[in-house]
């Protein structure tokens, strides 16, 4: 039996692709043979340059997905897509007693609302042309745990886990694999405040069996797997890539 991890001939739309985990996933998708469409609210020039240097193919769309009509516009520019990676996300930190409605709404919109409606638009287009494909959502350890001082992030990522399972239930038999990755503590812009706090960083590292912060590339391999034919019978999984954090 041959196990197929390649993405040759496929096109992957990756949101949040200008930096961090989204950038690493977009690059990995092209290394596996896919063409990437890199979407973000800022230009993904660095991502495209790195892909081109590796001999890969990619395009970009600069888009604010919170704006009305932005999702339809993105899908029109992206063209026929076989793989959707919902990676764009934001975080706001404050004690629950002080957390503002504005910060709540902004996080929930980009981290959860956009994930649903972009997935919906992707599935409508894919099924409309009789295709099959995959959605990979980026959840979090906070899909399983409460955390502290990030109420809207925890709520949104818990929602991503539940939404992943719901969409898998509805679309698995229609040829769309829907799964999520729950990254652990990864060295990205979102975790910069934690890494800058010596005491907090030490407490985190002491809990991680692998003994280090994760790198964006540590998430990319899991994304390629979940998007590939090798994962054809994987539906509704929340795949933690966390250096062993949840096993502790």
Task: From the structure above, extract its key features.
8 helices, 43% helix, 248 residues, 16% strand, alpha/beta, 7-stranded parallel beta sheet, Rossmann fold
Examine the coordinates and then state which fold CATH places here, giving the name of the CATH topology.
Rossmann fold
Task: Provide the spatial order of strands within the biggest beta sheet.
Answer: 3-2-1-4-5-6-7
Parts with pLDDT < 50 across at least 5 consecutive residues: none
Over the alpha carbons, how many angstroms does the gyration radius reach? 17 Å
Overall pLDDT confidence? 97
Strand content: 15-25%
Q: Total number of helical segments?
A: 8
What does the model show?
Helix 1 links the parallel strand 1 and strand 2 (35-40). The chain has a seven-stranded parallel sheet, with helices on both faces. It has 248 residues and is α/β, with parallel strands linked by helices. The protein is built from eight helices and seven strands, in the order βαβαβαβαβαβαααβ. It has helices at 20-31, 45-53, 70-78, 101-128, 151-171, 192-196, 198-207, 216-227; strands at 11-15, 35-40, 57-62, 83-86, 133-138, 176-183, 238-241. The chain has a single domain (11-241), classed as Rossmann fold (3-Layer(aba) Sandwich), CATH 3.40.50. The termini are far apart.
Write the topology of this structure:
Blueprint lengths: L10 E5 L4 H12 L3 E6 L4 H9 L3 E6 L7 H9 L4 E4 L14 H28 L4 E6 L12 H21 L4 E8 L8 H5 L1 H10 L8 H12 L10 E4 L7
Helix pairs in contact: 1-2, 1-8, 4-5
């Amino acid at each position: 039996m041959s196990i197929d991890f390649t993405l040759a001939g496929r096109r992957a739309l990756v949101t949040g692709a200008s930096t961090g985990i989204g950038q690493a996933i977009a690059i990995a998708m092209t290394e596996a043979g896919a063409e990437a469409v890199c979407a973000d609210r800022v230009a993904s020039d660095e991502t495209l340059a790195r892909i081109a240097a590796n001999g890969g193919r990619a395009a970009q769309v600069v888009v604010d997905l919170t704006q009305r009509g932005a999702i339809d516009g993105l899908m029109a520019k992206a063209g026929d897509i076989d793989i959707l990676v919902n990676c764009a996300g934001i975080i706001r930190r404050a004690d629950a007693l002080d957390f503002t409605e504005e910060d709540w709404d902004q996080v929930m919109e980009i981290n959860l609302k956009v994930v649903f409606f972009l997935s919906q638009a992707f599935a409508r287009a894919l099924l409309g042309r009789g295709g099959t494909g995959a959605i990979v959502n980026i959840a979090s350890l906070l899909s399983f745990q409460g955390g502290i001082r990030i109420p809207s992030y925890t709520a949104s990522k818990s929602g991503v886990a539940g939404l992943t399972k719901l969409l898998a239930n509805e679309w698995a038999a229609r040829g769309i694999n829907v799964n999520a990755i729950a990254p652990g503590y990864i060295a990205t812009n979102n975790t910069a405040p934690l890494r800058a706090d010596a005491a907090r960083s030490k407490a985190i590292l002491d809990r991680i069996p692998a003994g280090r912060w994760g790198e964006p590339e540590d998430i990319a391999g899991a994304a390629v797997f979940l998007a590939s034919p090798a994962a054809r019978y994987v539906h509704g999984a929340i795949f933690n890539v966390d250096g062993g954090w949840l096993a502790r």
